[in-house]
Write a structure and sequence with these properties.
With 529 residues, this protein is α/β, with parallel strands linked by helices. The protein is built from 14 helices and 26 strands.
Length: 529
């Protein structure tokens, strides 16, 4: 970039930082040409575009602006120049020593393709033709309009990463995409773009594009919505860490094919804004981590109903928001298809001391297969649901609950707080009176009387023992070794419950305590090997 090459709106690179040129010209009390730059990193600048009380340009923050001499900037390069720099070593271009370059070929597999300097350009082009994933992040690309030569050189590219470059126009990106009709994944994060004049006119350039990444591009939802018509087959939209604070009602038809929406790191505070996506028919994953949401609510149905919102949603992530109470978790149970949720780092997580937060969530949401990024086994679900019944049993009883089905009439307030409680009673039975007695913290009060059975030859040996609920399975195995002489490494433990006599459950985690599996007085542990 020479002194006269930059225009207002251009993107420049200097000393490891990227910014947008907002002014080109002289500055009072100095000589020579300056670029007035609004830096992406607001800490890189020194002022708001003002020098000696004169305003030269506008900045996004009071400290993101500065003046830079043109010679301090590095020239931008073309897309093809960056492609060759990344995927053709210098020695090949000059006919030097043998060298290998790594191409991503096939379905995401990396294969080393040897390209020897003395070999012909035909072979180099052949290897480019096999390129599927072009990773061109942070290579100072500032232009992409290079015509059909792109299509001839890399006809089979399906994924391009143009993050953190100097491209300032989505129309420029469309010119590139128009030459790559197999393009499915496009990463444009950490750039600053002007909006296209007519997004719908660019649809043919992105005819097969499915996944778009526009993280850290400083867009509002209105700007995202304006761009969406460019991508008619969009399936994944990643728009993290932008300036999205509110979401207005929009044309649902624009996102009919959307399966994943990632809004992490914005400043959305109103759940009603999120509900604008509720009619998307194919949306399976919604990521809302690190926003400012205070509640989740589906008011179209009662406490034990199933909402019409988000009919296909299987996974929702709400980590690091401001969810203040357990009612938001109750509301998630209303989702018809929900199987996976993440809710860590919310205020409600600190409120419950009686049970592990994960166990309460599993107790409240019946179809979860994953909770906070870990699988939910059938055994864990049973233990969590039994503990849920016991833990909130006194509250149930005080609200009008009773072991006698004809007298069991808990209050509406209780059922709103615990909408699955009636269902859990149907599955496991109502908690008994002795289970509702507040436990005292003594070893005796924490003992569980179990039957331990072991088939030895033609005989079955049974021993009754009182074991602490805190005793883990590894220690149970050690005890069995002492009592029944069965090698610890060979033991496979299961148990049957007095309440579910027709089912047998595995004790499949040596580090978990007996209480984790929901083992109660009278249950039987079977020893197999």
């Amino acid at each position: 970039m020479n002194e006269n090459s930059a225009n207002v709106g251009d993107r420049i690179w200097s000393d490891g930082e990227i910014g947008t040129v907002k002014y080109v010209g002289e500055v009072e009390s100095t000589s020579g040409l300056w670029f007035g730059v609004d830096w992406d990193n607001q800490d890189r600048g020194k002022h708001d575009g003002t020098h000696n009380k004169k305003k030269y340009f506008e900045t996004k923050s009071p400290t993101s602006g500065s003046f830079v001499r043109p010679k301090k900037t590095v020239p931008g390069v073309s897309f093809l120049a960056a492609l060759k720099e990344r995927y053709i070593p210098d020695d090949i271009l000059t006919g030097g020593i043998d060298e290998a370059e790594m191409f991503v070929v096939g379905d995401g597999q990396q294969t080393a393709v040897e390209m020897v300097g003395a070999k012909s350009i035909v072979q180099r082009q052949s290897n480019f033709a096999r390129l599927k994933n072009a990773v061109l992040r942070d290579l100072k690309i500032n232009r992409c309009n290079e015509g059909s030569v792109v299509r001839q050189l890399i006809p089979n590219v399906t994924e391009i990463d143009l993050s953190k470059n100097l491209i300032n126009s989505l129309e420029e990106v469309a010119m590139l995409a128009n030459q790559l009709q197999n393009l499915q994944d496009l990463k444009l994060s950490e750039n600053r773009f002007s909006l296209p004049k007519d997004p719908r006119s660019l649809r043919s350039s992105f005819i097969n594009l499915q996944n778009v990444f526009l993280n850290y591009v400083n867009f509002t939802w209105e700007e995202i919505e304006f761009c969406v018509p460019m991508w008619p087959k969009l399936r994944q939209l990643h728009i993290c860490f932008n300036n999205i604070t509110t979401i207005n009602k929009f044309d649902i038809e624009l996102l009919q094919n959307l399966e994943l929406l990632n809004l992490e790191g914005n400043k959305i505070s109103d759940w009603n804004d999120v509900l604008h996506f509720a009619k998307l028919p194919r949306l399976e994953m919604l990521i809302l981590n690190k926003n400012m949401l205070t509640q989740v609510a589906f008011n179209d149905v009662g406490p034990d109903g199933k909402t019409e919102s988000f009919p296909s949603l299987k996974s929702i992530s709400l980590t690091d928001n401001l969810l203040s109470d357990w009612q938001s978790i109750n509301e998630l149970e209303k989702l018809k298809s929900l199987e996976d949720t993440r809710t860590k780092k919310n205020p409600f997580c600190q409120q419950e001391k009686l049970l592990d937060t994960r166990q309460i969530i599993i107790g409240k949401i019946g179809n979860l297969k994953r909770c906070n990024n870990a699988l939910v086994s059938g055994m864990e679900r049973r233990g969590a649901e039994l503990d849920y019944l016991k833990t909130f049993g006194k509250e149930w009883r005080a609200s009008g609950g009773d072991q006698d089905p004809e007298k069991n009439n808990p209050s509406e307030e209780f059922l709103k707080k615990h909408p699955r409680y009636k269902h859990l009673i149907k599955v496991y039975g109502a908690p008994e009176d002795y289970e509702l007695i507040t436990k005292v913290t003594t070893l005796k009060s924490g003992l569980i009387q179990v039957n331990i059975t072991c088939e030895q030859g033609n005989n079955t040996k049974t021993i009754q023992k009182k074991l602490p609920g805190t005793m883990n399975i590894q220690k149970v195995k050690s005890l069995i070794h002492k009592l029944m002489k069965v090698d610890i490494a060979s033991q496979k433990l299961t148990y049957t419950s007095t309440k579910l006599t027709d089912q047998e459950f595995e004790l499949n985690n040596d580090m978990r305590p007996l209480s984790f599996f929901g083992i109660e007085n009278g249950d039987t542990i079977q020893v197999k090997w």
